[in-house]
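User: Good morning. I'm curious how S-adenosyl-L-homocysteine would be positioned relative to this chain. Could you predict the structure with it bound?
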Amino acid sequence: MLYLTDPDRLSDVLAEEPRYRSTQLHEWLYEHPVLSTTDMTNLPDGLRRDLEPMHWPFTLDLEQTADGGRTVKWLFRCGDGSPVETVLMGYPSRTTLCISSQVGCAMGCTFCATGQFGFDRHLEAGEIVAQVAYANAHLREQPLPNSPSRVTNVVFMGMGEPLANYDRTMEAVRRMIEHMQLSARAITISTVGLVPGMRRMLLEPWPLNLAVSLHSTIPAERSRIVPINDRYPIDDVVAAAGEYYRVKGRRVSLEWTLIAGENDSDDEAIGLARIARDIHAHVNVIAVNPTPMSDDAPPTRDAMQRFVGMLRSKGANVTIRDTRGKDIDAACGQLRLRAEER
Ligand code: SAH
Ligand code: SF4
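Assistant: Good morning! Here's the predicted structure, ligand included:
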């Protein structure tokens, strides 16, 4: 499998070929990815045919488009049948790819479709990187309207908890930076708050962005919707996020999935604003996308405005994240649900 091979060791799979072939293949896999080896125009026909079955570590199972072509969602299947979800979103000045780091997730957050499935396995570094390469190969043929025709930003907000798959995630990050010309500042690791992993990130050489999924400031309530809070309590999570900003100089984002009647009170807004001010963080609020296995509902527009208004009046820096691809189940784990229903 080409993407499961270290990009510096491609000569291992090209044993019989002259050495310059690995440089050519590297370009087709990482610099200018193509959907099919048929398009690797400077390789001999026979070699292109031999490489085709080894090209991608997964096959495309479902592709859906929404938002006037500005959102594309893929469900891939690995050789063992594992589903991998990836979402591409085009904006005027950036093209953002939301990628998966695991098949399923062991963290069990109650409102999350991936969490409701439980954990299957970690993704390999190559399976993580191949999602970015596939998106670039797709964009080469079908760019999104009025958006850059390459992935400019990567967010680890698909299926899985990246810091529970730490070494493979960081190896994937290294390949994106060193082999795919992505800037560390354009890569965001989103975590539910695995404190040891957040602290390890301080030692990495790159100024990566860190997003922390908070969802509640009240310990008992957070433990209810984000069970891992029992192991890594909110105070420790906030302390680690504050340290990340101090050491790396990168503003942390605090993710808040707003659920009607659960975490949309004034008290929660006041607590969240205080934390955001204390650690110079930015708050991203998103309305929950309902999942079949939970009764969680999004807040009304008024309740959303009230929550955000309260945050701002207390001095927090807030963005409301749009729910891209709502009609194609683009929230974490939801396309997989759809596929499993077939
Ligand atoms: N495990 C990591 C990254 C993947 S989840 C984390 O939890 O941060 C990425 C983001 O999607 C998280 O902020 C998560 O809370 C959010 N999310 C999960 N399910 C959702 C849903 N049903 N509606 C809205 N956001 C959801
Ligand atoms: Fe896992 Fe993140 Fe979903 Fe929680 S929200 S279950 S950590 S993927």
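Residues 63 and 273 are 39 Å apart (CA to CA). The chain has two domains: 1-55, 56-340.
Let me know if you'd like a different ligand tried.
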